[in-house]
TrEMBL record:
One of its GO terms (molecular function) is dipeptide transmembrane transporter activity. Keywords: Cell membrane, Membrane, Transmembrane, Transmembrane helix, Transport. The chain crosses the membrane at residues 100-121, 133-158, 198-217, 260-282, 302-325. It is found in: Cell membrane. It comes from Piscinibacter gummiphilus. It holds the Pfam family BPD_transp_1_N. This is ABC transporter permease.
Length: 334
């Protein structure tokens, strides 16, 4: 119980510090949310009235205290962008980004891990150089460039992929939203034409995000595997006559599994947070586009709510990684 209490206190302090820094930065930004509401031609009295209604005339510490008071009741405030509660906006846009990032991390893991293992077992040879080149290209090339080139080739020229948005307009609204994940909802409803349309639109942005994840995961997998393949127990296993497949996958790979869990978890969190550029390029109605629009408008309620979500996601993924450590590595259970 004491250990759980310490972990909970650490999590709360981390999120509190994140909120405070974001709050302070938001208040010193040159963007004025009052002007976004009243417009540049409003008179001084109207400006001051709206400024008082938003509470921006109070000291910074008082404003933050009121925000924490409302937050303790589950109130994230209203978004200037939509006029709706931020909590409702986040519940609406977050599933689209979760669906995109989940498909991307599946691609990144299922492709990146085998590539990293393959490169490590062929160190210094042609296969290793090819994988390292792919990793370098995927990690260093701007993701928005990939997005624009993907739209040009697979949408404009070949017509294989969908364009902007999440689904063809002809199928929009045909499936009742249960989970917010369009692929899951259409499959549950048996609407396979809607499913195919949604898959056609998500394949390209998810594939580009997945390529970025492949570059990172394959590079880290290769590094971890090289460290294990140089250990004495690997030499012992080979001397015993075990096949190379057994040595690589049953011995070396099992010992990097715990490290890979952290890498994959952090990569997933990074995809959720870093999908901003891809969502902007593809007009994807998700969390990243919502956060970008809120920042440009100076809508700090929406920005604070979005930052809180990102913080919770990363903290939750770290806690999940710690829990999985104890499942796969008995030495950590004490």
């Amino acid at each position: 119980m004491r250990h759980a209490g310490q972990r909970l206190a650490t999590v709360l302090l981390t999120l509190l510090g994140l909120l405070f820094l974001t709050f302070v930065i938001g208040r010193v930004m040159p963007l004025d949310p009052v002007l976004s509401i009243v417009g540049p031609d409003a008179d001084r009295s109207t400006y001051e009235q709206v400024r008082q209604q938003l509470g921006l005339d109070r000291p910074l510490a008082v404003q933050f205290g009121y925000y924490l008071r409302d937050l303790s009741h589950g109130d994230l405030g209203k978004a200037l962008l939509t006029g709706h509660p931020v909590r409702d906006d986040l519940a609406r846009v977050l599933p689209a980004t979760v669906e995109l990032a989940t498909l991307a991390i599946l691609i990144g893991t299922l492709v990146g891990v085998p590539l990293g293992v393959y490169a490590a077992t062929r160190r210094g040879r042609l296969g290793d150089h090819v994988v390292r080149l792919i990793s370098l290209f995927g990690h260093s090339t701007p993701i928005f460039w990939f997005g624009m080139m993907g739209l040009l080739v697979f949408y404009a020229w070949l017509g294989w992929a969908g364009g902007g948005g999440r689904i063809d307009l002809a199928y929009d609204g045909l499936v009742q939203s249960r989970t917010g994940l369009l692929l899951v909802d259409s499959a549950m409803a048996g609407e396979w034409e809607v499913f195919q349309s949604a898959l056609r639109f998500i394949a390209l942005p998810a594939g580009i995000l997945g390529l970025h994840a492949v570059a990172y995961i394959s590079r880290m997998t290769r590094s971890f595997m090289l460290a294990q393949l140089s250990q004495e127990y690997i030499l012992t296993a080979r001397v015993k006559g075990l096949s190379e497949t057994a040595v690589v996958w049953r011995h070396a790979f099992r010992n990097i599994l715990v490290q890979l869990l952290t890498i994959v978890a952090l990569a997933y969190g990074g995809l959720l947070e870093g999908a901003v550029l891809i969502e902007t390029v593809f007009g994807w109605p998700g969390f990243g586009q919502y956060l970008t629009s809120s920042l440009l408008l100076g809508d700090m309620n929406a920005v604070m709510g979005s930052v809180l979500v990102v913080g919770i996601v990363f903290v939750a993924l770290n806690l999940l990684s710690d829990a999985l450590y104890q499942v796969f590595d008995p030495r950590t259970r004490s």
